[in-house]
Write a structure and sequence with these properties.
heterodimer, A: mainly beta, 7-stranded mixed sheet, 4-stranded antiparallel sheet, B: mainly beta, 6-stranded mixed sheet, 11 strands, 61% strand, globular
Chain lengths: 114, 113
């Protein structure tokens, strides 16, 4: 069974802080994704990566960056946290592109920026 | 880019009734349409998916239909049970090179005993 692990379930940070959200998957998946989930807005893609050291902007990349130094780990970075980044963040992984492979999600990190 | 609209945002049914959730997509090149279920406090999980070369797919009490001409697809749940209560998300994707899903805004389904 695929396991996608997010390092923190709940996180409280102050405005202006640099925030790291970590995600690790154990199934050798090539693709990894970061989504943001807000009520009434669904799941919106922030960034994704289809290979080590590769990254692509999603639909809402502003204010975020990512890092993928190893295949199993995908980090989301908030360079200077702001209150409008308070949200639930979901990491996901899937097999390589070209296949109809499902996304496997982590349990999410609920980030509060005060 | 792709845009997915989902309706209704909330749906309340009695146990045993059927429930239908509808989605429309904008990009005619989209060819993969999965549905995810997210129970309260849990991660979204794939429940069923359909590819553009198929018009309907069933799995026990759930089914998905796809109308490529109208660019809409629907989730049908029959004989609903309280454990079907959850938020359901539709999504659309173009499978070329790598997969990038665009999700709808979600439907909160409440099944009352």
């Amino acid at each position: 069974d695929v396991k996608v692990t997010q390092s923190s379930r709940y996180l409280v940070k102050r405005t202006g802080e640099k925030v790291f959200l970590e995600c690790v998957q154990d199934m050798d998946h090539e693709n990894m994704f970061w989504y943001r989930q807000d009520p009434g807005l669904g799941l919106r893609l922030i960034y994704f990566s289809y290979d080590v050291k590769m990254k692509e902007k999603g639909d809402i990349p502003e204010g975020y960056s990512v890092s993928r130094e190893k295949k199993e780990r995908f980090s989301l970075i908030l360079e200077s946290a702001s209150t409008n980044q308070t949200s639930m963040y979901l990491c996901a992984s899937s097999l390589s592109g070209g296949r109809y492979s499902p996304l496997h999600f982590g349990n999410g990190t609920r980030l509060t920026v005060t | 880019g792709e845009n997915v609209e989902q309706h209704p945002s909330t749906l309340s049914v009695q146990e045993g009734d059927s429930a239908v959730i509808k989605c429309t997509y904008s990009d005619s090149a989209s060819n993969y349409f999965p549905w995810y279920k997210q129970e309260l406090g849990k991660r979204p999980q794939l429940i069923i998916d359909i590819r553009s070369n198929v018009g309907e797919k069933k799995d026990q009490r759930i089914a998905v239909t796809l109308n490529k001409t109208a660019k809409h697809f629907s989730l049908h749940i029959t004989e609903t049970q309280p454990e079907d209560s959850a938020v359901y998300f539709c999504a659309a994707s173009i499978i070329t090179g790598f997969q990038k899903l665009v999700f709808g805004t979600g439907t909160r389904l409440l099944v009352s005993p």
